[in-house]
């Protein structure tokens, strides 16, 4: 499988490149960086610090290299992701996108793209996070109507969107399981006189230092509580998952795929 990585100098793009470089089923064709970066034109292995040259360039124009690839892996920015999506559709190339922070209209564009290309969107590519999502579905079905549900998510100081895409997905899973829409029951933070309303899902976002990712969902009862938590120690689990997602798309027909398909959840 011939792979292009978008944003190879970013925290995720760098790790994805390193892991893909070590896989026998993947060949890195190019990296795509934003215009104006001083590393454009250098070898992808140097830019992503793999420890060796990969014989693949870093370019600032996806269109110039897209015909040579089978799949694009994009963990860049909202703005860049939209450009990548349009080019993937035009060139009929499979796309894995793990960028977060999109609004409903932007997310619909990814779903619409699945008519034309194999499209896999995943707010979180960690295997264990997605197992956690399955546990949340079970818990919400059993006790969601009785519990006070609160979500605490923690990330590094550089994360732009809040709450995280992963925590929003968790809330959507629980809300859907209870027959609700997350937009109707989500409460984002509290300030001043703000008593808790029954049937809501509370969100709390912490940004500090280089915390990689942490999500805890609390199911509060009188006299007891249940917590379901995932902590990542670094970003490698997400990068491995992203490469697994790309490998999953090999030979797939156009359609909208998720990490659940990859993990058979």
UniProtKB/TrEMBL annotation:
<dbReference type="GO" id="GO:0051287">
    <property type="term" value="F:NAD binding"/>
</dbReference>
<comment type="pathway">
    <text>Amino-acid biosynthesis; L-lysine biosynthesis via DAP pathway; (S)-tetrahydrodipicolinate from L-aspartate: step 4/4.</text>
</comment>
<dbReference type="GO" id="GO:0008839">
    <property type="term" value="F:4-hydroxy-tetrahydrodipicolinate reductase"/>
</dbReference>
<feature type="binding site">
    <location>
        <begin position="7"/>
        <end position="12"/>
    </location>
    <ligand>
        <name>NAD(+)</name>
    </ligand>
</feature>
<feature type="binding site">
    <location>
        <begin position="98"/>
        <end position="100"/>
    </location>
    <ligand>
        <name>NAD(+)</name>
    </ligand>
</feature>
<keyword id="KW-0220">Diaminopimelate biosynthesis</keyword>
<keyword id="KW-0457">Lysine biosynthesis</keyword>
<dbReference type="InterPro" id="IPR022663">
    <property type="entry name" value="DapB_C"/>
</dbReference>
<keyword id="KW-0521">NADP</keyword>
<keyword id="KW-0520">NAD</keyword>
<feature type="domain" description="Dihydrodipicolinate reductase C-terminal">
    <location>
        <begin position="129"/>
        <end position="263"/>
    </location>
</feature>
<dbReference type="GO" id="GO:0009089">
    <property type="term" value="P:lysine biosynthetic process via diaminopimelate"/>
</dbReference>
<feature type="active site" description="Proton donor">
    <location>
        <position position="159"/>
    </location>
</feature>
<keyword id="KW-0963">Cytoplasm</keyword>
<dbReference type="Pfam" id="PF05173">
    <property type="entry name" value="DapB_C"/>
</dbReference>
<dbReference type="GO" id="GO:0016726">
    <property type="term" value="F:oxidoreductase activity, acting on CH or CH2 groups, NAD or NADP as acceptor"/>
</dbReference>
<keyword id="KW-0560">Oxidoreductase</keyword>
<dbReference type="Pfam" id="PF01113">
    <property type="entry name" value="DapB_N"/>
</dbReference>
<feature type="binding site">
    <location>
        <position position="42"/>
    </location>
    <ligand>
        <name>NADP(+)</name>
    </ligand>
</feature>
<dbReference type="InterPro" id="IPR036291">
    <property type="entry name" value="NAD(P)-bd_dom_sf"/>
</dbReference>
<feature type="binding site">
    <location>
        <begin position="122"/>
        <end position="125"/>
    </location>
    <ligand>
        <name>NAD(+)</name>
    </ligand>
</feature>
<dbReference type="GO" id="GO:0005829">
    <property type="term" value="C:cytosol"/>
</dbReference>
<dbReference type="InterPro" id="IPR000846">
    <property type="entry name" value="DapB_N"/>
</dbReference>
<comment type="subunit">
    <text>Homotetramer.</text>
</comment>
<dbReference type="GO" id="GO:0050661">
    <property type="term" value="F:NADP binding"/>
</dbReference>
<feature type="active site" description="Proton donor/acceptor">
    <location>
        <position position="155"/>
    </location>
</feature>
<comment type="similarity">
    <text>Belongs to the DapB family.</text>
</comment>
<dbReference type="GO" id="GO:0019877">
    <property type="term" value="P:diaminopimelate biosynthetic process"/>
</dbReference>
<protein>
    <recommendedName>
        <fullName>4-hydroxy-tetrahydrodipicolinate reductase</fullName>
        <ecNumber>1.17.1.8</ecNumber>
    </recommendedName>
</protein>
<keyword id="KW-0028">Amino-acid biosynthesis</keyword>
<dbReference type="InterPro" id="IPR023940">
    <property type="entry name" value="DHDPR_bac"/>
</dbReference>
<dbReference type="InterPro" id="IPR022664">
    <property type="entry name" value="DapB_N_CS"/>
</dbReference>
<comment type="function">
    <text>Catalyzes the conversion of 4-hydroxy-tetrahydrodipicolinate (HTPA) to tetrahydrodipicolinate.</text>
</comment>
<feature type="domain" description="Dihydrodipicolinate reductase N-terminal">
    <location>
        <begin position="1"/>
        <end position="124"/>
    </location>
</feature>
<feature type="binding site">
    <location>
        <position position="38"/>
    </location>
    <ligand>
        <name>NAD(+)</name>
    </ligand>
</feature>
<feature type="binding site">
    <location>
        <begin position="165"/>
        <end position="166"/>
    </location>
    <ligand>
        <name>(S)-2,3,4,5-tetrahydrodipicolinate</name>
    </ligand>
</feature>
């Amino acid at each position: 499988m011939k792979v292009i990585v978008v944003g190879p100098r970013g925290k995720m793009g760098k790790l994805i490149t390193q892991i893909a470089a070590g896989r026998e089923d993947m060949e890195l064709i190019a990296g795509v960086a934003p215009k104006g970066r001083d590393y454009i034109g250098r070898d992808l292995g140097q830019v992503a610090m793999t420890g060796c040259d990969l014989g693949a360039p870093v370019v600032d124009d996806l269109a110039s290299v897209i015909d040579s690839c089978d799949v694009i892996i994009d963990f860049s920015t909202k703005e860049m992701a939209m450009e990548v999506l349009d080019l993937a559709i035009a060139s009929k190339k499979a796309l894995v996108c793990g960028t977060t922070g999109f609004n409903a209209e932007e997310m619909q564009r990814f779903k619409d793209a699945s008519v034309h290309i194999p499209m896999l969107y995943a707010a979180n590519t960690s295997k264990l996070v997605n197992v956690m999502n399955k546990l949340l579905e079970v818990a919400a079905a059993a006790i969601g109507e009785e519990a006070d549900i609160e979500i605490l998510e923690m990330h590094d100081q550089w994360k732009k969107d809040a709450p995280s895409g992963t925590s929003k997905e968790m809330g959507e899973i629980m809300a859907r399981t209870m027959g609700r829409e997350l937009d109707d029951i989500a409460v984002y933070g509290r300030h001043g006189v703000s008593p808790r309303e029954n049937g809501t899902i509370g969100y709390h976002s912490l940004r500090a230092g280089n915390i990689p990712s942490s999500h805890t969902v609390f199911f509060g009862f009188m006299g007891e509580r249940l917590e379901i938590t995932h902590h990542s120690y670094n970003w490698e689990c997400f990068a491995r998952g992203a490469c697994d997602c790309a490998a999953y798309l090999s030979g797939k027909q156009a359609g909208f795929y998720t990490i659940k398909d990859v993990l058979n959840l």
